[in-house]
Amino acid sequence: MNAVLVCVDVGSTYTKAAAVDADTGDLLGTASHPTTLASDVMDGLRAAADAATPRGAAVADTLVCSSAGGGLRLAVIGNEPLVTARAAYRAGLSAGARVVDVRAGSLTAADYTGLAAARPDVILLAGGTDGGDDTVLRAHAAGLAASGLRTPVVFAGNRHARDEVTALLTAAGVPVTGVANVLPRIGVLDPAPARTALREVFLRHVIAGKHLSAGPDFARMVAAATPDAVLTGVEALADLAGEDLLVVDVGGATTDVYSVLTPDAELQGPRAEVAGTAWRSRTVEGDLGVRHTAAGVIEAADEEDLPASPRLRDAARLRAADPGLRADDLADDAGLTALAARIAVRRHARGERVGGPTEPLRGGKDLAAVGLVIGSGGVLRRRPGAAALLREAVGADTSGGVRPPQDARFAIDADYRLAPAGLLAARDRRDLAERLLAPLLLGPWSTRSGP
Q1: Are residues 64 and 78 in the same domain?
Q2: Hey, is 319 helix, strand or coil?
Q3: 3-class SS at 20?
Q4: Which of 248, 447, 229 is nearest to 349 (CA)?
Q5: Contact between residue 350 and residue 402 where contact means Cβ atoms under 8 Å apart
Q6: Does residue 241 surpass a pLDDT of 70?
């Protein structure tokens, strides 16, 4: 038997493993195990990996991504909410972070107190275009240095201030990594360098700092935050498919939406949004999950004027009170999943509101040209007919004020291929990643979307 690469996703609830043939990219086995946060995450990791690996196979390497312990918690500081803070926010989401705090403009001592209270793992500091005014950016760096916070900082602002800001924060004992500006020019968004730096800081500082394992093996094995790995897999799948792609991942605590869209020529040049447009992007909805945040799904449905039956409301309360609940009847889980998916895609298409509840929505997306929609998450993977459920929830949603996919195919990542493919692609095994993803392009499909 050929050597095997074992790809493992350590989530807050379940640890999922996939064994991949190191020569052909074939999926040889999958398994899941409850994540062992109460003891040592390596216990659940080993159990899932062993169950997924064919007997007698030689394991060449084990690649791990993780969102256990809250994943990557990120705070963003920018010059102002409409431009650099928004650009940094989008870069943070692309790195698989959960953005827990956004600050912009002139900051006070109370702002830094609030920043500390948000308990970020990393701070993304941005500000100004290259060669522009760096007054506010320098003030933010001085404020961070004097605040007593020693949270690692990724600096992705005006490159002309990089050396001074790095020296200032380093002298104050703050770990800092300087990279290229996320917004080098108005309307030009460049999230890749910040995404790479955030990944490295996550691996170097965050994983070890969460104390999820008593030994060094876990920190050594983790290669990415789970959403970062999934986005890499989504990008590889979109390139392989050659069409616009949408992925909806409904979890127990959040619903993540990923899109890879063809850049719209009309939204570039003079009509470009000042903070740039992320054509390969992710949004995360921290109030839309089918376990820990199930009550949030009902609250959001009420706000969206979407119907939720008394039975579904009771089911949401029960799941929020007992996130470990394993339901034999998946009907209620399916109902909550459909609501979470519909609302999350609406929010993804409308854009984000950075800087507070009174800020306008920015960065909206037209999903009408999406040709392929992939569903992921425990309920969708387990439920028969899940692709049709997703098509009804997302493709037939004509009342949300956004343009949903008009003529898309719908499928489910039932074997959980996206995260393993992302781990492989990030290790320069794009060939194996594409072979692993290829079956997702073969169906089976639900009926197409559209009226």
Answers
A1: no
A2: helix
A3: strand
A4: 248
A5: yes
A6: yes
Q: What is the pLDDT of residues 149-198, one digit of tens each?
A: 999 999 999 999 999 999 999 999 999 999 999 999 887 888 889 988 99
pLDDT tens string 385-421: 999 999 999 999 988 889 999 999 999 999 999 999 9
Residue 125 falls inside a structural domain: yes
> In 391-427, which positions are buried (b, 16+ CB within 10 angstroms) versus exposed (e)?
bbbbbebeebebbbbeebbbbbbbebbbbbbbbbbbb
Least confident of 248-257, 270-279, 418-427: 270-279
Question: What's the helix, strand, coil split of the chain in %, to 5?
Answer: 40, 20, 40
The answer to whether the bond into 444 is cis (omega within 30° of 0) is yes
- pLDDT tens per residue across span 369-379: 999 999 998 88
Host domain of residue 428: 223-442
Cβ(439)–Cβ(433) below 8 Å: no
Tokens of 302: 């009420």
For helices 310-321 and 331-350, the axis angle rounded to 10 degrees is 90
Instruction: Give CA–CA dist 365/259, Å, rounded.
Output: 9
What is the spatial distance between Cα 73 and Cα 32, in angstroms, rounded to a whole number?
A: 25
Q: Which two tokens stand for residue 73?
A: 């918690």
- Of the candidates 179, 207, 235, which is a domain's last residue? 207
Q: CB-based contacts of 260: which residues, under 8 Å, 6+ apart?
A: 234, 235, 238, 244, 245, 279, 280
The b/e string for 55-93 (b: 16+ C-beta within 10 A; e otherwise) is: eebeeeebbbbbbbbebbbbbbbbbebbbbbbbbbbbbb
Task: Kindly report which listed range (52-66, 95-109, 353-367) carries the lowest average pLDDT score.
Answer: 353-367
- What is the C-alpha separation between 304 and 164, in angstroms, rounded? 47
pTM value is: 0.82
The domain that contains 188 carries what CATH number? 3.40.50.360
- Residues 299, 399 within the same domain: yes
Question: Is there a single domain that holds both residue 58 and residue 90?
Answer: no
- What sign for the dihedral angle of Cα 348, 350, 355, 356? negative
Strand order in the sheet with 372-376: 280-285, 255-260, 245-250, 372-376, 409-412
Residue type, 111: D
Rounded CA-CA distance 434/440 in Å is 10
Three-state DSSP class for residue 198: helix
Main-chain dihedrals φ then ψ at residue 344, nearest 5 degrees: -65, -40
**CATH code: domain of residue 380:** 3.30.420
